[in-house]
C-alpha cells in the first residue's frame, strides 16, 4: 500500500493533484484544504495517501497530514459516506471543526459540506461521537472546546496556521489555550496563549 508520496507538485485541478516522484506522476484526489497546503506547482511537497480499490476503479487519495487521512478513513466507515463526500467534508471543515462537531453532536456544522444532507450529517455525528475524542486534530479537550466556525477559537487556529504552524499543532494549542483561559477568552488572548503551547 502507498502510504506517503514525497516529490514535486506537477499539476493541480479542482480536486486533484499530480505528484512527480522520481519521474513517475501520481494522480491523487485531495480536499480543497490539502490542495492549498501543497504550495506552488513545481515546488516540493509531501502527501499522506490512502489507496482505495473497487471492482472497476483504483483511486489514490492525498492529504496534507496524517491526521486528515485518519479522519478521512473514519468518515468513510460511516454508511453512505464515500471518498467524495468525505473529501467534501474535509474541504468545508478543518479537522478540528469536524472533531468538535462530532463530539458536540453538531450535525448542522457537518451539513455545511457539499452533498451532505441533514440526515447523513446526523448519522455521521452520531456514529463518530464516541470516537472523536481519541482522534487527532483538536488535541487536549478538543471535544469540549467550542471550535465552531466564526468563533474566537476558530479564528485563533487560523491565525496560528497563518504563522506557519501545522493545522494539528494549531488546533491542539488553541484547545489548550481555551481550556486554560475559559470559554469567554478573546481572540488576542487565545493567540498569545496558543503560541506558548504551539512553540513547545
Automatic annotation (TrEMBL):
Is the keyword Electron transport assigned to this protein? no
Q: Name one Pfam family in it.
A: RuvA_N
Q: What is its main location?
A: cytoplasm
**Protein's UniProt keywords contain DNA-binding:** yes
Q: Which GO terms describe its biological process?
A: DNA recombination; DNA repair
Where is this chain's protein located in or outside the cell? Cytoplasm
Task: State the UniProt keywords alphabetically.
Answer: Cytoplasm, DNA damage, DNA recombination, DNA repair, DNA-binding
Q: Where is this region: Domain III?
A: 152-200
Supply the domain comment.
Has three domains with a flexible linker between the domains II and III and assumes an 'L' shape. Domain III is highly mobile and contacts RuvB.
Sequence similarity:
Belongs to the RuvA family.
What binding partners and quaternary form does the record give? Homotetramer. Forms an RuvA(8)-RuvB(12)-Holliday junction (HJ) complex. HJ DNA is sandwiched between 2 RuvA tetramers; dsDNA enters through RuvA and exits via RuvB. An RuvB hexamer assembles on each DNA strand where it exits the tetramer. Each RuvB hexamer is contacted by two RuvA subunits (via domain III) on 2 adjacent RuvB subunits; this complex drives branch migration. In the full resolvosome a probable DNA-RuvA(4)-RuvB(12)-RuvC(2) complex forms which resolves the HJ.
- What does the record give as the function of this protein? The RuvA-RuvB-RuvC complex processes Holliday junction (HJ) DNA during genetic recombination and DNA repair, while the RuvA-RuvB complex plays an important role in the rescue of blocked DNA replication forks via replication fork reversal (RFR). RuvA specifically binds to HJ cruciform DNA, conferring on it an open structure. The RuvB hexamer acts as an ATP-dependent pump, pulling dsDNA into and through the RuvAB complex. HJ branch migration allows RuvC to scan DNA until it finds its consensus sequence, where it cleaves and resolves the cruciform DNA.
What HAMAP family does the database record attribute to this sequence?
DNA_HJ_migration_RuvA
Query: Which protein are we looking at?
Result: Holliday junction branch migration complex subunit RuvA
- Which species is listed as the source? Allopontixanthobacter confluentis
Q: Which gene holds the coding sequence for this protein?
A: ruvA
Amino acid at each position: 500500500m502507498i502510504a506517503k508520496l514525497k516529490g514535486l507538485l506537477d499539476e493541480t485541478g479542482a480536486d486533484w493533484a499530480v505528484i512527480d516522484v522520481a519521474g513517475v506522476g501520481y494522480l491523487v484526489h485531495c480536499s480543497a484544504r490539502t490542495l492549498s497546503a501543497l504550495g506552488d506547482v513545481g515546488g516540493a511537497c509531501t502527501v499522506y495517501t490512502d489507496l482505495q480499490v473497487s471492482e472497476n476503479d483504483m483511486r489514490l487519495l492525498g492529504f496534507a497530514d496524517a491526521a486528515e487521512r485518519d479522519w478521512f478513513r473514519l468518515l468513510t466507515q460511516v454508511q453512505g459516506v464515500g471518498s467524495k463526500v468525505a473529501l467534501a467534508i474535509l474541504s468545508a471543515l478543518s479537522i478540528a471543526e469536524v472533531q468538535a462537531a462530532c463530539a458536540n453532536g453538531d450535525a448542522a456544522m457537518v451539513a455545511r459540506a457539499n452533498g451532505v444532507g441533514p440526515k447523513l450529517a446526523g448519522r455521521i455525528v452520531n456514529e463518530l461521537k464516541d470516537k472523536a475524542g481519541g482522534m487527532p486534530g483538536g488535541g487536549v479537550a478538543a471535544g469540549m472546546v467550542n471550535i465552531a466556525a466564526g468563533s474566537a477559537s476558530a479564528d485563533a487556529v487560523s491565525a496560528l496556521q497563518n504563522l506557519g504552524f501545522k493545522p494539528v499543532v494549531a488546533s491542539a494549542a488553541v484547545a489548550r489555550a481555551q481550556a486554560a483561559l475559559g470559554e469567554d477568552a478573546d481572540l488576542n488572548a487565545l493567540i498569545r496563549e496558543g503560541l506558548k503551547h504551539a512553540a513547545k
